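Recall from the previous lesson that a structure prediction takes nothing but the amino acid sequence as input. Here we apply that procedure to MHC class I antigen from Ctenopharyngodon idella. The sequence below is the only information supplied.
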Amino acid sequence: MRSVVLLLLGAQLAYAGTHSLKYVYTGVSRGIDFPEFTAVGMVDDGQFMYFDSNSMKAVPKTEWIRQNVGADYWDRETQTDIGFTQVFKDSIQIAKERFNQSKGVHTWQLMYGCELNDDGSTRGYYQYAYDGGDFVSFDKSTLTWTAANPEAVITKHKWEALAVAEQNKGYLENTCIEWLKKYVAYGKDTLERKVSPQVSLLQKDPSSPVTCHATGFYPSGVTITWQKNGQDHDEDVDLGELLPNEDGSFQRMSTLNVGPDEWKNNRFSCVVEHQDKTIRKTEDDIITNFDSVPIAIIVGAVAAVVLVIVIGVVGYLVYQRKKGFKPVSASDDGSNSSART
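The prediction returns the following tokens.
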């Protein structure tokens, strides 16, 4: 099913295509009240399976996967993830040695998957992160690993010496795509539905920033931009993460941080694009009284945050991928680091 080679460290929301399959594994060192290992499987950014080291059991999270696979599927998933639990625990320890760390809470993460576009083109990736930052990533076009820092160069060399690059590429280009197609067929009614977003402009009081909130949309691909006097405006804008709603739809926020005078002297608007529909909200649409915000928006936002925490999508929240992956020259042998393996 998932023919991923279990690699010890010592031995990453890219553009979503028409359909995508992604797994996020997160290992957490002891010290907080959270499972040492979680695995989240997502199709089109919606969770369909979950595993953690407390329950030691892989479970379905959608009705379409529950109805289309049997107990043997979940037994294999469980055994695979149990194996990763120890691998990630060992990898965190090795990483701590590399970075000369003896205390604190640390994370080791893997995000991998594939995308299938309308035109038949595909994309695949393996991305590892330590403490929320890039560590190594797989380049399937060159069959090499890219190290993001000196501590990762040793890992790059060791993994390339294992000569499993062709297997990794085969998984991304074949096995992963095959399973993605199966999952899309299983959940066709759910995964190929189209629901437009509900858009609101929210402001606590006249001197507060204005947030453009889009929720309830599916699929996940949405664009939220601001315009000032009819022209694109990207200054003083904070774009929030894409978050899942409890019903499987998505929500996202974009906040414009400008003062009251600038609002008064200019005409701002929020433009939300989803599928082939465009929704525009202006100052006239701002809800300024917090108590008057539709209860559905409040409940949806709270449920999404709770859901993200509970289901372990911490995997891609903890992994705050840096802008621009900066590789380190492979000629660096890591001698200036604390690596021991």
